[in-house]
Amino acid sequence: MRSSRFRRGLALAGTIGAVIAVAWGARTTGHAQAGVLLAGSITGPSGEKMEGVIVSARAEGKSFTTSVYTDVDGEYYFPPMEPGKYKVWAQAVSFEAGRADVSLGGTAVRQDFALKSMKDFEAQLPGDRWVHALPEDTPEDRRMKTVFRVSCGGCHSQNTALLSRFDERGWKNILTVMSRIATAGYVANVVGAAAATEDMAPNPLMDYYKERLARYLAKVRGPGPSPAKFVPRPRPTGEAILAVIREYDTPGNGYGLPLWENGTDWSEGAPSKTNRQNHHAMDGTLDFEGNLFFTDDLNSNPYRSVGKIDWKTGRITNVKVPRRGNPRAAASVHDLVADQKGILWFGADGTLIRLDPATLKWEAMTAPDGTPVPSGGFNAVDWKGGVWSATRGASRFDPVTRTFTQSRNPITKSKLGSVGTYGMAGDGDGNGWVAQFGIDIMVKHDPVTGKSENVQLPPSPNAPEPGLFTGDDRRIFDMMGGSLYQGHGHPWMHTVRKPGGGPDAVWGPGWTSDYLVKIDTRTLKVTLYPMPYRDVGNYQSVVDKDGMVWNVFTNGDAVAKFDPKTARWTWYDLPTRGTEAHGLQVVTVNGRVQLGVPYWGSSKMAKVEFITAEERRALKSAVQRVAR
Fold first, then answer.
1. Are residues 172 and 147 part of one domain?
2. What's the whole-model pTM score?
3. Are both 126 and 212 inside the same structural domain?
4. Which of 198, 221, 244 is the endpoint of a domain?
5. Has residue 6 got a pLDDT over 60?
6. How many angstroms separate the CA atoms of 316 and 356, rounded?
7. Whether residue 108 is found in the same domain as residue 137
8. What pLDDT score does 220 carry?
9. 86 and 126 both lie in a single domain
10. Which listed site, 229, 327, 371, 466, has its alpha carbon 20 to 30 Å from 404?
11. DSSP state letters, 133-202
């Protein structure tokens, strides 16, 4: 009788595994088909069922972690997993983590967790929740909170800046050092930035506010009692629990394997940005097989320009484009995008590169006359297949005719200071869009007419209250110019980072304003949509095949889907703290949307997949039947 039940359970698990494997892009003969079902329940201190808890599992000797969410009944269900020894843990903000060593064998294994409350849980919080906790009871509090927003984030998340406590003198010392750090000073030899030195002129904004900001931070994160009120975000519910997230280590050769715990244990806070091994994934995407590709950019990795990750094994294969003038080193790469045929495109040393994801053969693009096709660090593919690059304006390359057109931005200098070009998008009509975040302008480039026109964005609805910044308090912002420090704009600007193009609209993530900016590509009408939370640091917006707008939050450790028809957000928390994700790409794999999310702050590349409610119920049914 037991043997018969076991065979029925094995057959059922195999059937469900095959369904899920196909849905997630696996071959039906792959390892996921005959895997083991891992499931369990999460309860709180009073035995209450906990929805939206992230449960993670990592096999012994593997370089990736798989994570799922619990449902309204507090139950979690993993996709079929390979047999073996696993570490399994469950985490929710304000609770101690549940941990277990689990051996997966047979057809199904159950592992339950009862979580205990945690009194001091602020280290578990993503960066935006730290800013939310800062007091704003008085005008000076609100001024300093605003100054903190634009001065103490960008090169790192706010949970890194506020994790430790210092007295007023300590904070003043920290601000003095930070005011002299170049945007990319720790990699000055790569990008040509001035290295930080003791005689470097300080950042005027930080220098001006140093005394007052130090007093404010000592009050909030000093040795004494703090007025900060820490409030976690609500845990995911409903559709948001249907994500399956795989996070892959992206070590840099020569630096050893990173600790895979980087950002994994929330109670330890975000990993240190000063540790170079923690950031080896600047941007990334997927191929049509569901494999991941990522770039290192500022790290000057001598072994690779692009890395390929086999999604089933986690194995990394390096692709090296020799650096101009130093072929022993690899060219630095920022953006990495896939076109409608699955071909990958990126810029390396100012030249556009085509990469075949199947063969990993790359080719530097040239025009029919042999002229190299220019490419900046920011790239995009429009909906007609043209490959765009931000190049002191924008250039569009046609892969079919191998011709390119180039145009300049109408504004190259501004009274506000740097125009701060950052990000490239392509729309449904084949136009290119450049984000000039330093002056809050989006530039539309029409390759057919050669016309380029500006779209000036309206003021931010989240601008500081009138009268909060007057006199010298206001003039210091004007003196700094629009781009300010670490890519922040004035507090009353949007500061669009990396925009995304759709069939009839371009979407800009307002880094400073926390608004999603929509521009109708034909009428140029601008519409603003508030993001679910403030200070999340929306770095990039991307539009999928169904018109959904996906966004990645550098400080919020999350991705979110925005539905333009309903103006509804669906928020997905990521399993790692301190992700500092600088990019996001969306690819259709076997008819399903999958996300590629690089974790610049913790040296990982994530693959986010989605199952349907019906498929989740099928997994639940399979587990229940095997257990009978």
1. yes
2. 0.93
3. yes
4. 221
5. no
6. 16
7. no
8. 95
9. no
10. 327
11. HS--SSHHHHHHHHHHHHHSSSSS-HHHHHSS---HHHHHHHHHHHTT--TTGGGHHHH-PPPP-TTSPP
Q: How many residues does the chain have?
A: 628
For 116-143, the pLDDT digits (tens) are 999 999 999 999 999 999 999 999 999 9
Question: How far is 171 from 479, CA to CA, in rounded Å?
Answer: 24
Of 155, 187, 221, which one is at a domain's C-terminal end? 221
Q: How confident is the model at residue 359 (pLDDT cuts 50, 70, 90)?
A: very high
Give CA separation, 404 vs 29, 360, 407, 409, 448, in Å.
Answer: 43, 24, 10, 17, 11
Binned at pLDDT 50, 70 and 90, residue 486 comes out as low
**Separation of alpha carbons 420 and 322, rounded Å:** 28
Joined together, the tokens standing for residue 33 give 């088909």
Residue 301: which residues within 8 A CB-CB, separation 6 or more? 252, 253, 280, 330
Q: Which amino acid makes up residue 295?
A: T
For residue 126, tell me if it sits in a domain. yes
Closest CA to 146 of 225, 213, 208: 213
Tally of domains in the chain: 2
The CATH number assigned to the domain holding 263 equals 2.60.40.10
Q: Band of the pLDDT at 15, cuts 50, 70, 90?
A: very low
Verify that 66 and 38 share a domain, yes or no.
yes
pLDDT digits (tens, 9 = 90+) for 380-401: 999 999 999 998 899 999 999 9
Instruction: Evaluate whether residue 205 is within a structural domain.
Output: yes
Q: Can you give the pLDDT at residue 9?
A: 44
Residues 115 and 242 in one domain: yes
Q: What is the pLDDT of residue 299?
A: 61
Q: Which domain holds residue 21?
A: 1-119+236-278+589-628
pLDDT at 45 over 70: yes
Answer left, alpha or beta for residue 269, where phi above 0 means left and psi between -120 and 50 means alpha: left
**135 and 227 Cβ atoms separated by less than 8 Å:** yes
Q: Which two tokens stand for residue 382?
A: 């429009």
- As a whole number of angstroms, the distance between CA 373 and CA 379 comes to 13
Q: Which two tokens stand for residue 225?
A: 């009692």
Strand order in the sheet with 394-398: 379-381, 387-389, 394-398, 403-407
Query: 257 and 160, same structural domain?
Result: no
Cβ proximity of 495 and 488 under 8 Å:
yes
Domain presence at residue 316: no
Element (H, E) at 315: none
* DSSP secondary structure of 525-583: -EEEEE-SSSS--EEEEEE-TTS-EEEEETTTTEEEEEETTTTEEEEEE-SSSS-----
Res 312: pLDDT: 96
Tens of pLDDT, residues 529-566: 999 999 999 999 999 999 999 999 999 999 999 999 99
Q: How many CA atoms lie within 13 A of 90 on its CB side?
A: 26
On whether both 39 and 130 belong to a single domain, the answer is no
